[in-house]
Amino acid sequence: MTRYIRLLGTFLRASLLAELEYRANFVSQSLLGVLWAGISVASATVFYTQTDLVGGWRYEQTLIVIGLFVVSQGVIQFLLYPNLSQVVSMVREGTMDFVLVKPVDSQFLCSLRYMRYSGLSDLLTGVIIVGAGLTLSGARLDLLAGLMFIASLAAALAILYSIWLAMSALSFWFVQIDNLAELFNSAFDTARVPVTAYQGALRFALTFVVPIAFITTVPAQAALDMLDRSMLVVGLGIAVGALLSSRWLWLRALRNYSSASS
Amino acid sequence: MRWIRAYLALARAGWASVLEYRAQIVIWMSTSLLMMIMLAVWLGISRAGPVSGFSSSDFVAYFIVGWVVRNLTAVWVSWELEYAVRSGQLSPALLRPIHPVHKEIAWHWVEKGFRMAIVLPIATLALALTPGISLALDLLSVVAFVVSVFLAWLIRFMIDYLIGILSFWSSQSTALSTGMEGIQLVLTGTIAPLALFPQAVQDVLRWTPFPYLLNFPVEIVMGRLSTEGIASGLAAQLGWSALGIVAAWVVWRTGIRRYAAFGA
Q1: The pTM is what?
Q2: pLDDT in tens, B123-154
Q3: How large is the greatest C-alpha to C-alpha distance in chain B, in angstroms?
C-alpha cells in the first residue's frame, strides 16, 4: 500500500515536470478551462432569464449542478482523459507490454499514471461555482447533510472513473476509442442541468441506464438536503457495481491482449 | 473552366477522404447533441405555455433547423492549417498551381454532402412529425435561407482560417479555435434562440458577426423576419464576409513570408 502511495507521488511529480516543458500550452489550456466553465454557466443562465424554476430547481440551486459538472470536466481533463489516450496509443503501438511486465497492478498504472495540471483550472473554477451555489441557496450542510454530500460525491467520482476505465478496456478490442470518449462527452452534456429538467424516458435513462444523474444532480441534492436516503443507497450501489464491473472488463481486456505485431 | 476542373479533382480526392473517415465524421456530428439536450430542457419549460412567444413547436423548429445549419456551417480549417504548418506539409501544398485554401474549401463542401445524407432525412422527419410547425417555405425565404447559410459558412470559415494562420507565429492556435467554438455556441444562438436573451445583450450582438452565423438563417426559415430584416441581415453577412476575406488575405501574406523564412 505504501508503495502505491509513493508511486502516486512519483507520477504526480513526473507529470508536473512534463507539463512544465510546455508552459504556453499549460497557460492556454488553463484559460480555456475557465472560459468553458463560463460557457456552462451562461448556457444554464439563459433558461432562468425566462423562468424561475427549471425542473423545480431555482437558479442558485442549479449553480451547484453546473459547478459539479465543471468539476467533473476538471477530473476528466486532469486525470481520466490523459490516461485513456495513453492506453489507446500503448495498445496501438504494442508498448502495453512494458506495463504488463512491471510488478504493479496494471489498472493502477494505466489509470493514474498521467496527470495534466491544466485540468486543475476547470476543477478549481468548478469548486468556486459550487461554493457560490451553496452560499446563495443558503445550504446549511450540517453533519448529516455533509456526510451525505461527501458520500454521494465519492459515488459520483467512482462512476465517472469506472466509465473511463471501461472505455480504456474497450480500446483493446476497438482501436478508435478516442471517438467513444467524444461520444461520452456529448452524452455527459446532459449533466449540465438537474435531471428533473428532462421528461419521461430521457430522465429514466439518465438515472438508471447511463447513471449521469448520480454524477451531478444527486450530490447537489444531498448538499441541499433534498436527497431521498434511498437514492443515496442506490447511488452507492451503482458506484460499487461500476467499479467491480469495470475492473472485470479491464482484466478481460488484458487477457485478450496479444501485443501489436500478432 | 480551369477552376471547375480543379474543384472537381479536389472534390474527388475529398470524397475518398470522407469515406475513409466516415465513422469519425459521425462522431464529430455528435457534438451537436448539445442542441437536442437544450431543446429537451426548453420543451420542459414551455409545457406550461409559450416562453416569450416561443411555443413548444417553435423550439422544435428552431433547434432542428439550427442543427441543419450548424452541420452546414461546420469548419475545421484551423486544425488542418496548424497541422500543415507544424509538420511542414504546407511546403508541397504551396508548390501547387492553385492556392491551398481551395483544397480546404472543396473538402469542406464534400464533407457537408456526406453530413446532409444523414441530417436531412432526420430533420425532415422530425419537422414533419411535430404538430403545429409552420415554416416560411416561399421562394424568397428559401433562396434567402440558402444564401444566408452559405454566407454564414463563409464568415465562419474566414474566422477559423485567420485563427489557423496564427500558427505561423504561435503554437497555440488550436486552443484559440476551441475557445472560439465555445464562444460561438453561446453567441450565435446554438444553445438558445437569441430572441430569448436580454434585450441589452441582443443589441450588442447585432454589431458582431455572431448572430449571422446561425440565429439569422434559422429565423428566416421560421418566418420571424420581415423582408427588410432579411435584406439588412444579408447585407451584414456580406459585409462580414468581405471583411473576413480581406483580413485573411492580408494576414496570410504576412504569415507566409514568415513561414518561408522559417523553413530556409
Answers
A1: 0.92
A2: 999 999 999 888 989 999 999 999 999 999 99
A3: 67
Distances (CA, A) of A96 to A85, A233, B19: 13, 37, 31
Which residue ranges in chain B fall short of pLDDT 50?
A: 264
Residues of B in contact with A176 (CB under 8 A): 23-24
pLDDT value at residue A175: 66
Residue of A nearest to B170 (CA): A24
Residue A6 and residue A112 in contact, taking contact as beta carbons nearer than 8 Å: no
Residue B63 contacts A where some CB pair is shorter than 8 Å: no
Contacts of B11 (CB under 8 A, 6+ apart): B106, B109, B110
Do A51 and B185 lie within an 8 Å CB cutoff?
A: no
Question: How far apart are the CA of A134 and the nearest CA of chain B, in angstroms?
Answer: 23
Q: What ipTM did this prediction achieve?
A: 0.89
Crossing angle between the packed helical segments B77-87 and B139-165, to the nearest 10 degrees:
20
Closest CA to A194 of A72, A69, A58, A55: A55
C-alpha to C-alpha distance for A139 and A221, rounded to whole angstroms: 10
Judged by DSSP in three states, B131 sits in coil
Domain chopping of chain A, boundaries: 2-256
Give the model's pLDDT for residue B120: 94
Nearest to B39 by CA among B204, B227, B262, B189: B189
Q: Which runs of consecutive H residues, i.e. helices, occur in B21-138?
A: 22-29, 33-45, 56-72, 77-87, 90-95, 101-129
**Residues linked to residue A233 through DSSP beta bridges, in sequence order:** none
Cβ-in-10-Å burial (0-12, 13-18, 19+) of A171 comes to: buried
Phi/psi for B75 (5° steps) reads -135, 150
Nearest to B172 among A24, A192, A197 (CB): A24
pLDDT score, position A47: 94
Q: Which three cell numbers stand for residue B12?
A: 474527388
The pLDDT score that the predictor gives to residue A261 is 59
Judged by DSSP in three states, B22 sits in helix
**Which stretches in chain A have pLDDT values below 70?**
175-177, 259-262
> Which residues, 6+ apart, have CB-to-CB distance to B133 below 8 Å?
B57, B60, B61, B127
